[in-house]
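Deliverable D4.2, example record:
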Amino acid sequence: MTSEAPNAPLRIVIADDQASVRQGLVLLLGGLDDIEVVGAAADGEQALRLVAEHKPDAILLDLHMPVLDGIGATRRLTAEHPEVAIVVLTTYADDASVLEALHAGARSYLTKDADHADIARALHAAATGLTVFDPRVHATLLAATAVPQPAPAAAAPPPDGLTGREVEILGLIASGMTNPEIAAQLFLSNHTVKTHISRIFAKTGSRDRAAAIGYAHRHNIG
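Output generated by the structure prediction step:
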């Protein structure tokens, strides 16, 4: 469900038992023009009361909270307020937490290293019925739900000490994507993408984007 007026801000509730995290999210997200924070809860029971009172479009929900944890709150929200999109924001990206939250009815799942722009995008997407996963969560979900296959021969490690994420970004550079496009594709901030690219240039000895693309082609990246 989304707000009725086409240009109305997305109305959300935030639930996190850590006061500093909760207050920080209220300030960061509430400061955006397209989001209105209508309530903040320290546990799952408070979250349910606030949702019942304010009828928000979405809720940003931590998993590990006292009184009623995020999984229990997600189950009750799904049953009692199915129109409210549930976005989980937590420290944990392990198989059990991800799958349990999704089975309980969460629409999206982000880890707490996501920046406020990523969180805002996920909330808006969830409110329109879309699902958004943090890249680490997506990898966890794929691994947890994949059909077991015979183990392939070990792949060669990335060249020159590149990390998996750096190889991924280098491949996107080689495909012609801009920094903002890469950030949107991977649900990263522009600053994070720039940091990765600086490391890629240093490790590959590339002076500019063209040199990095040449390196990618020589190493069959992208």
